[in-house]
Amino acid sequence: MGPRKVRAGLVGAVALALALSGCGLKSGSPMVDDVMPGSVGQGHPLDGASLTVTSKNFSESIILGQMIGLVFKAAGAEVLDRTNLPGSISAREAIVKGSADAMYEYTGTGWITYLGHAKPIADPLEQWKAVRDEDRKNGVTWLTPSTLNNTYALAISKKNNAEYHLRTLSDVAALAKMDPSAVTICVENEFASRDDGLPGMEKAYGMSLPAANIKKMDAGIIYTQVSKSSSCLLGEVFTTDGRIRAMDLEVLVDDKHFFPNYNAAPVIHTKTFEKYPEIAGLLDPVSRKLTTEVAQVLNAKVDVDGQDPHEVAKDWLIQEGFIKKG
């Protein structure tokens, strides 16, 4: 994801990525859907192309990777599905080395994790431009970003917020000063110690929360605790998580733009893009429709309702008119 899945399994993923890139392996399965052009893919601009799509191993990334594959398929390409690779690094290396041609990546991940910058850029478009320009040297082409922003946030249950009326993180800071005991936060261990997590947020907003008010737990438990218990007024969440809607939570606005932008954008192996520049015209309209709210709905279908990411992606593309059933 944005921040959440960058962290998972990086060491093992590096080893896998090196193995994949070293032998030029193109494992995966052919995408066999019978789909036709809708508003994109008219004239089958990818006829004769054989393209491989990839993703990281969490629901949102898999859904987005499936979207790319289905659009390519509708545009006439033969598509190999290599989505669900473990960790960020393995998927990244597949794009860099050319063992995969396309995936959705996150601007904050590109800037901070891959390009090694400590300080994010506050403006989402400027962040994307900076990543796009610097990543060219790595043989990676970034296409138009979506407004889908999978970043850190704090959330509160609507039930509890009926009492506090919190809208922004500045409101939380004000409440913490007025009534320090009221602000209890449930977070993951890592968020509790990262500079781009709780310590940095407290500094940016002038908060100083008592240690007893900070409760550390696994990410999945946080949503339940914030929704159903009184032990956490606030919880660390990710802005596109489907459980936000499913559990009736409200995300507080990061009004000082502390958390990095993790906007999803297609990344293409540059040699592939040079051969098939039509890819931009196929994926740009899709990215324009992808918002944080859309991602919450699609992610919930997988993570809450148990649906298949491929079918969720396909249904949405058909619903939006991008592709049609064959």
SSE layout and pairings?
Elements: H1 3-6, H2 10-23, E1 29-30, E2 35-37, E3 50-54, H3 59-74, E4 78-82, H4 87-97, E5 102-106, H5 107-114, H6 124-135, E6 140-142, E7 152-157, H7 158-164, H8 169-178, E8 185-187, H9 189-193, H10 198-205, E9 214-216, H11 219-228, E10 234-238, H12 243-246, E11 249-251, E12 264-269, H13 270-275, H14 278-289, H15 292-303, H16 309-319, E13 323-325
Parallel strand pairs: 3-4, 8-9, 8-10
Antiparallel strand pairs: 1-4, 2-13, 5-12, 6-12, 7-10, 7-11
Helix pairs in contact: 2-4, 3-16, 5-6, 15-16
Task: Describe the protein's architecture and organization.
With about 325 residues, the protein is an alpha/beta fold. Helix content is about 45%, strand content about 15%. It is built from 16 helices and 13 strands. The strands form four sheets. The protein has a five-stranded mixed sheet. Strand 3 (about 50-55), helix 3 (about 60-75) and strand 4 form a beta-alpha-beta unit. Helix 2 (about 10-25) packs parallel to helix 4. The protein is elongated. Mean pLDDT is about 90; it is low at about 5-25.
